[in-house]
Here is the input.
Amino acid sequence: MTSRAGAQLTRAVILIFAVTAGTSAAGLYYLQPLLHDVAADLRISTATAALLVSAAQVGYLAGLAFLVPLGDFLERRRMVPALILASFVALAVSAAAPNFAVLLATTFATGVAASAAQVVVPWSSSLAEPERRGEVVGTVMSGLLLGILLSRLLSGTIAEFGGWRTVLLVASGIQLLMALALYLKGPAGGQAAAEESYPEVLVSILTLIRRHAVLRQRMILGFFAMACFSAVWTAIAFLLAGSHGSPFHFSEFSIGLFSLAGVAGALGAPVVGRLADRGYLRTVTTLVWIVVLGSWGLLAWGGHNVIALVVALLVFDFGIQGIQLSNQSAIYALDPAARSRLTTAYMVMYFLGGVAGSVTAGAAYQAGGWALVCEIGLGATVAGLLLWTVFAVRARWQGSEESDESDESVELVTETRPAMASGI
Here is the structure.
């Protein structure tokens, strides 16, 4: 990286990158706390409304798999604004959607365009001077996390006064402003000089999956973790709105406030990271899975007690974020030269879990309410913990690419710590 590139990365540009990452990722979550209102307005069932969450996640998966690798080939100053403009169009059409079919299609498109967040991060990293790289990437990833957390609060606040369509209209306006700001202020260059063709890059991702057992294992664990996370945050919108006999009847604004419980994950990440830094990656992984396991009892109780629900969400989100951090710490140590491709492999499986969780949660809540959602989530967590136990025991007997004593297993955890926000 040249000093000229470093000079281009001013505080204003870093701020624009951070906000861009946040507003792009937020597009996946604006409707999540408003599913009850969407279902009532379009006269569809809660299970059908929950498909909107799945559509956004499937779109994001497609963007991760097929668009993010293009950051190695295309001029990012043009590519990212183009994706954000696509988000603007998709959100604007969603706001005017006359029926569920149109809304489902445009929500999918919004998810595809949200992959811009995962192009902005390596763009900022490639432009940063080595001594500032961690600071810059951390700032951008903090913006992404805040976008995810605040999207639900913003949507709840706006919907309180103008309905869910107004939420999407405001969101589209924000994206138009960000596309303009990034095009005018975004530094030129920043893409890597790839020697492989685009098809070869995609094929090499499959090669990495075949080569690294640790990657395959962490992909499976990520699938279960994200399925649990997506199930909770999909079903909780129905629970808090009073659907199917729920004792709660909160407003859209109040439902949005519950998303702030996700701050627990951000606050707890440094604790998990420090333990991983000291060589206890396997131990950390075990502990955070146990935390998630224990949180299901609190979540079930929270179906009848709002204080218990808030505490449960704090504990649950901390555990899920810890799983994400430990997974990324492990996979990024496998091949430093292929971290983007490792990320693609892991995140595709991670969001497949999100799709499975949201679809299951919508159907489960309609069939058996919050209690059934918690029972299914508990089962998924038990399965994940059992699989992790098998993986850890096998690694101790056979030797592994990750271990509590290996420096390799925690290589550059500082870089991966902020990246956990990208899987919320």
Q: What stands out?
A: The first helix runs from residue 3 to 8.
